[in-house]
Amino acid sequence: MAETTGRVVLVTGANRGIGRAIAERFVAQGDRVATIYRSGDLPDGVFGVHGDMTSTEQVDEAFSRIEAELGPVEVLVANAGITKDQLLMRMSDDEFESVLDVNLGGTFRCVRRASKGMIKARFGRIVMISSVIGLYGGPGQANYAASKAGLVGLARSITREIGARGITANVVAPGFIETAMTAALPEDTQKKYKASIPAARFAQPEEVAAAVAFLASNESGYISGAVVPVDGGLGMGH
């Protein structure tokens, strides 16, 4: 069994928001952390490789560079994602397909590549970052919701296929998170959103990172195919 710390952890999209907080958490634990990202700066201690989640060739090349630098990936946190919100009747094929290709297809490409080393090592932790919207739905977010809901089926299929090899695959579904985006919302809008959340507040990115860190730990070895909401009770698991 892999050590709890000092592992090779890949967090996609670690340049900002939730992904950044997750990467910082693993660095603080003493893990060797890498990311595949498009742009921006990275937290200290994170080895970064530029790559496009929609390109199998770029994903595979990024993994090869990370393996050469740090070693085989033992923990994969599939966090990278995009949004292109639009009302259903106005949503173009490209707006639908591009979101699915990054959020769901990109996760698939990373999991497929990471699974090779995990199967060989007979150990692996796969954590996919979904959203309460994937379970709850959201107006103007048919593409995003579909992509995030698809992660649940992906994680459960992986669990049934390679769960006997010491590999777990789980989903974390964050709700409203305290970010620059939510901070920019009008005060009345923030109050309206918070009124719908039993916890009556937005989450800190570090609270999502804590759930991810647990699912990546040795202690979570008998948890697989699960969806863990970090939403203050907003979705109640739906």
TrEMBL record:
<dbReference type="Pfam" id="PF13561">
    <property type="entry name" value="adh_short_C2"/>
</dbReference>
<comment type="similarity">
    <text>Belongs to the short-chain dehydrogenases/reductases (SDR) family.</text>
</comment>
<dbReference type="InterPro" id="IPR057326">
    <property type="entry name" value="KR_dom"/>
</dbReference>
<dbReference type="InterPro" id="IPR050259">
    <property type="entry name" value="SDR"/>
</dbReference>
<dbReference type="InterPro" id="IPR036291">
    <property type="entry name" value="NAD(P)-bd_dom_sf"/>
</dbReference>
<feature type="domain" description="Ketoreductase">
    <location>
        <begin position="7"/>
        <end position="180"/>
    </location>
</feature>
<dbReference type="InterPro" id="IPR002347">
    <property type="entry name" value="SDR_fam"/>
</dbReference>
<protein>
    <submittedName>
        <fullName>Beta-ketoacyl-ACP reductase</fullName>
    </submittedName>
</protein>
